[in-house]
Amino acid sequence: MVRWKGTYRQWGVRAKVRAAEVCDLATSLGKEADTLTRTLQLEREGIKE
């Protein structure tokens, strides 16, 4: 029983770490996407002008 508790705790920690990594990745990707869309919009506006 003690072994199971230990593995469950380890899995919980791993899951939290993995979730944090995924969140960081998502935020960085979102920032990149924002900058890309902004540059595209600026280019389009420049073409229109």
3D structure, described in words:
The protein has 49 residues and is mainly α. Helices cover 96% and strands 0% of the residues. It has 1 helix and no strands. It has one helix at residues 2-48. It is rod-shaped. It starts with a helix and ends with a helix.
The main pleated sheet reads as: none
Q: How far is the N terminus from the C terminus?
A: 71 Å
Mean pLDDT: 85
Proportion of β residues?
under 5%
Q: In total, how many beta strands?
A: 0
Q: Which class best fits the helix and strand makeup?
A: mainly alpha
Tally of helical segments: 1
User: Spans of 5+ residues with little confidence (pLDDT < 50)?
Assistant: none
What is the overall silhouette? rod-shaped
Task: Using the CA coordinates, give the radius of gyration.
Answer: 21 Å
Order of helices and strands: H
* Share of residues in helices: over 70%
Structure in a nutshell:
With 49 residues, the chain is mainly α.
Protein traits:
49 residues; 96% helix; mainly alpha
Architecture blueprint of SSEs:
Elements lengths: L1 H47 L1
